[in-house]
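Handout, page 2. Input:
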Amino acid sequence: MTQALEGIRVLDFTQMMLGPYGTQMLADLGADVIKVERPAGEWERGLEMMGDLVAGESAAFLAMNRNKRSVALDLKDPAARAALLRLAETCDVVVENFRPGVLDRLGLGYDDVRAVRPDIVYCSGSGWGQNTPFAREGRPGQDLLIQAMSGLAAATGRRGDPPTPAGTAIVDHATALTLANGVLAALVARERHGVGQRVEVDLYSTAIAMQCQEISAFLNQDEAYERSEEGIGQAWLSAPFGVYEARDGWVALAMAPLDVVAAVVGDPSLADLDPWAERDEVKRLLEGHLRREPAAHWVRELGAAGLWAARVRTTQEAVAELQEQGSDLLVTTDGPDGTPISLIGCPVTLSETPWQLRLPPPRVGEHTAEVLREVLTDDEVARLTTTATTTGERTPTHG
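Output:
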């Protein structure tokens, strides 16, 4: 079956989530993604999730590296550099998320690749951008730090609580999708206008862009930002938007006019409160009512009144439902030791060129000889595969 990106070839130098999740999206949609790792493997292969690994590999790595071929080379070896430039000649896209300047110093930067492939789409992901003050300071670019610096963490929770980061790496994930989007736009531009170009994305810019509604509000309305005492779902919105305790759990309530809510819970006084100026009082009063009945009761009653409500579930509950439904969002493939592993599938549905699970997450360097033989002689391949070392720092170098 034909895939949307069939025929597109990507040289992927990325690690952690920002890069690998973005390149996995390209791979899922049909691109031939060649993952370049040091001989010791990408750092995230050893990142323990909940204190453990899956058959010697991190669940995080396995989640973001299917449909790729792994090539393990020492980037400081001049022969490896030459081989990678030969590969780059055959590629449409190069993606990297090292700290700014690292690949330039190794002779694999944008200008180096453009010299052998003038129409290359060369995408750089980073924490703070390529030439910003924070980037020049060499600050580490990592999701939690970006949530802290961008205001995201400080915008979550109750006024008296500490700043609260999200329960997953939301900035990494959003930036990975932005990366894939930027690469696809550049590929369309090359097809339409005949130009290659450099694409840049960074965690900090994405985190700011994720707050476009809130920032637009305070820039244009001259209104100071402050979280509510009771923890309205978003600090910028009026009550009753938020999460409320029911008798046996929690209920999320989104777009809901107070007069309609008041009628559902049988308390006309709610309708007389100002949903912005008195949002904390609204939340306290409404929560008192919702504690009387189970969550399912309120979801049913609020929904019948045309209001947007849902029960708050754990991730385990959500996944269990997907399993019961036989959802395409859950896929099974071979793990590092050959036993089956379960992964989350691609969330994009294309009617004519759907995504496919073609390859399981690769072992370190599993495809080195296979890929290099596409551009080198057998003797050159033998030299590179026998001289690769296993040295290298065990800390992430993107930023």
